[in-house]
Amino acid sequence: xxxxxxxxxxxxxxxxxxxxxxxxxxxxxxxxIVRVFAxxxxxxxxxxxxxxxxxxxxxxxxVAVGIGLLRAGLLPLLMRRALTAVATGPAPLAGDAGGAGGxxxxxxAGGAGGxxxxYAEDVSEARETQPLVNxxxxxxxxxxxxxxxxxxxxxxxxxxxxxxTRALPVGLAVVLIGFFVLVTRRRALAQVVGxxxxxxxxxxxxxxxxSGVPLIVELGVSFDVLLAVLVLGILTTRMRAAFGGTGxxxxxxxxxx
Length: 257
What we know:
The chain has 257 residues and is mainly alpha-helical. The protein is built from eleven helices and no strands. The longest helix has 31 residues, at 58-88. It is globular, with a radius of gyration of 21 Å. The chain starts with a helix and ends with a helix. The model is unreliable at 91-121 (pLDDT under 50).
């Protein structure tokens, strides 16, 4: 592949990779956030594949296929299942008891009111309703974090300026944005996405800085991430059953008590 075309494709894929992280900050529907995360997994696999096309290393191509299957396929599937389980899961025991009492006292309007209350809870669980930072401030923060990443990475790029290292700030920016999502979202599943954005940024930084990582290292990291998502998926379902929601404010109130 000609060097100019390779650099342009790599810049395009890295731009899509960064754009996906910014779109996550803009969205509120958790299902849409999961879909955007899957697209970012495709872009990450594209980064690895383009590095392979430039360096002719079959090991990186195998890593690219594995990343595509895991981060654009399996992880979003697990998150969608967790989201479905949370949105349709059982309400807390106290709420069920109150609903039963209301049904015993009034079989007409009371039953309809109870159904509407549970429906509202299900809808709220599918959205990030009250983040700590609003959309406008989140997008402005993403721009500032991207500028910070470019400033920090400038000395590293100057050491060995290549198309891959010149895209290094993109990986660092996604790391910072992922951490920002992790600390500003209140829904547990949104925080899971922030953790995975953070991991995607670290993986992209490793690829761009070192033209890829050994296959065995990437497999080990991927299995760790998969295990973490499985555990977090179970945790969010149990939170829904225990507290009636997945907001971290419930856990803070529990600690205060």
